[in-house]
């Protein structure tokens, strides 16, 4: 009896093992699935000329494959022809351009491409973009007073191209190899540094001999080229009148920015007067000291005696002709009631907010859908006028019209900036009115407002344009703002011309949000 039991158990075990074995054989059938990769697939298959790139076929169920490369500009490593049947192939690209690499595969059965079942034979084309090595060239021209190009400068070390103080040079860059970043450096120039522009106008105010450099680069595939010239510009004295270009608060002092270097021996504190207005209070502090900025010879610094200035003050400066003159002997003209612009760290600067309009397009400043009359406007990015840099925002408000725009990135996301609680901020913008006709001052004036969201204060103030507003020059306008809470905010920029029979056309540039100091 025990013998029969043992035999029966052995038979059952054999049948069980056989059944499991067949089931396992079914489960391990290999699917046919296309899996193709390249060594640069995460970087849009972009490489630099004379670099190599690997191609791999790790598809399941492949019976045969053939890689086919272009005849010209590509060398397949370890192969004498432009084709290969290997699973992994490496190729050297010797010419810039776009190249198509074809893969033909034959599978055991119909194959999957991603999750879609295809046929037994599949064709795949991989497009490789080969970038040329980065190469740059520069042209520099004198810039005439009317903005037209003058003679070309000599592009050599030690050229010492002579330029009268307060004149400008236009630098133009040509590139090969699609650089992603461009960095200019202009010793002694204004601006001294600028990025990602191929054309730059640089003004030189200080006498001396200066270098310049430009670097063009890209991160991947890495490449770079540099051009630099030593002793390139020699700034010489000018007989042109000296101009007062800006009046700015800097570290508690009042900075007078002239068009060229001033003579420190011609400074007399008694030639300057300052008036401070705050509500009904009027102060006339004495100018205790006058000096030249150590780093900028064209900047005259006024220090007040026992008085400070605050963002909620209206501060004006006047100069009665004394002996103030430039280093090249040109006397400075008198001026009266020049308003002081307050400076500070712009909270927009470290964010993606394109406050200078240098790196955005009109599509990044979309209409916010308020309906009529706030859709009766035109907005564009212009290179015709700029307060700093090369671009500004051009606004054209139609008769009885208005504008409401925001600022968004290329994906349609609102661009925001950080605000801290319990602080007062100055919201500022530079405005250049080109056309405004005759303003009817008996009705609501044209205006520009920077509303914010969230926690909008609809009563926030801003510039309003009457017939006394200067036309054809840059004017700084600002207002003080208190935010009810800290956090991330966005602007809704509203231009209003809803009561006027004529349109208005203006540029705006260099929007700023700076922490304000309030008079105690």
What is the terminal separation in angstroms?
112 Å
Please tell me what the overall shape is. globular
Q: Which regions contain 5 or more consecutive residues with pLDDT less than 50?
A: 1-28
**Whole-number average pLDDT?**
92
The counted number of beta strands is 39
CATH class of the largest domain: Mainly Beta
CATH topology of the largest domain: Jelly Rolls
What is the second-level CATH architecture of the largest domain?
Sandwich
Total helices: the number is: 1
Computed Rg: 34 Å
Q: Superfamily at the CATH H level of the largest domain?
A: Galactose-binding domain-like
Fraction of residues in β-strands: over 45%
Integer count of domains: 5
Based on secondary structure, the structural category is mainly beta
Q: What does the main sheet amount to?
A: 5 strands, mixed
User: What strand order characterises the main sheet?
Assistant: 2-11-8-4-6
Helix content: under 10%
Short description:
The chain has 520 residues and is mostly beta strands. Helix content is 5%, strand content 47%. It has a five-stranded mixed beta sheet with strand order 2-11-8-4-6, with no helix packed on it.
